[in-house]
Design goal:
SH3 type barrels, single chain, mainly beta, 6-stranded mixed sheet, binds zinc ion, 3 domains
Length: 203
């Protein structure tokens, strides 16, 4: 597979004898097992032009089992060979946003591993998470939950529907502290607090 070479790269300059930023004048980059860059580069320090050939280990493909409600789907994911995977890591597998729940290395399950040691990665679909909501009006309090994508933003002043109640969000409780203005992503929200504006239906 042919790849687009980078425009800049840090490599050792034979003249400066140290690693400097180089401009890639022209070159080819391809991906087989490894990723290879064959290019003519120009040192940003001394302007020396020279040819380089670099080889880096390519991504490692790991089988992934995605659990999504009651079913599970078998997919695979390319991982950076230099990056450790840990339980709780978030990643995107195809178009699914997931969280790592187990890492299988041979007969064992571990808390973290390098991609080359992983036999199977177990992940949980994480597209929609539960956001807890409490609303009140005088002595009445209602609590409930809404489902939202982890990256969805909730903003003070948003209207959230819990059952037959519309709740105007006035406080966002986060893992650390709370917000009375601005917004926060669903995955960071501990609870939304608001005021019951009106109840529809039964009167
Ligand atoms: Zn140089």
């Amino acid at each position: 597979m042919k790849l687009e070479p980078p425009t800049n790269i840090v490599v050792e300059c034979p003249k400066c004898k140290e690693e400097t930023l180089h401009t890639v004048i022209k070159g080819k980059m391809y991906h087989k097992q490894d990723i290879t860059l064959d290019a003519l580069v120009n040192c940003g320090e001394c302007k020396h032009t020279h040819q380089i050939k670099l080889t880096e280990p390519g991504p490692i493909e790991v089988p992934v089992i995605v659990s999504d409600q009651e079913r599970s789907i078998k997919l695979s994911q390319e991982l950076d060979p230099t990056e450790k995977v840990e339980i709780g890591d978030e990643m995107q597998v195809e178009d699914l946003f997931v969280k790592v729940t187990a890492i299988e290395c041979g007969p064992k399950r571990v808390n973290s591993a390098m991609p080359k040691d992983i036999d199977t990665l177990w992940v949980m679909r994480y597209d929609r998470i539960v956001v807890k909501v409490s609303g009140n009006h005088r002595a009445r309090t209602v609590s409930g939950k809404v489902f939202a994508p982890p990256e969805e933003e909730f903003t003070i002043g948003d209207m959230v529907r819990i059952g037959k109640y519309d709740i105007l969000v006035h406080t966002i409780k986060l893992r650390r502290g709370k917000k009375r203005m601005g917004s926060a992503m669903a995955k960071d929200v501990v609870r939304l607090y608001g005021k019951i504006i009106k109840s529809k239906g039964r009167r």
